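Re: the 163-residue chain
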Amino acid sequence: MVEGAGSKAGLPPLIIGVGQPWRGDDAAGLDALALLDGGGPWDCRPHHGEGLGLIALWEDRPLVLVIDAALSGAAPGALHRLEVADGAALDGAGFRCSSHAFGVREAIETGRALGKLPDRLIIHAVEGARWGLGEPLSDAVAAALPALADAVRRDLYRLADAF
């Protein structure tokens, strides 16, 4: 385990890969998570993105990183990093591709209102292009997955000692 990781709550950092494996680029969070699972002193959890379930997963964790697909208008394969800070509301445009009416953005805002956010919550996302049922990942997203996993890994090693 990374020295100091999870010491506040006695739990290691949590990485949540969000997505649906059968909806094109929506699977990016799950696929990036698979590149990190078993590769370090952190806890990896795949999740379909339903908001209340996300709150339950992260509720007692000091450090949480969420990996997801985004739809913000950037070029497919572009990487995004957003640190959720107290009081900074999310505009939600980049995370509206959820198949749930209550997804990542809503989970963050509800968790904030209920005092159920982790001490530090960071969203890593890749800009998607293909969302159809039964479609594979787009070439741009598939090519970006190693860089996405590396960005998450860098944050984990940089931040873990703070917890």
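The chain has one domain: 14-162.
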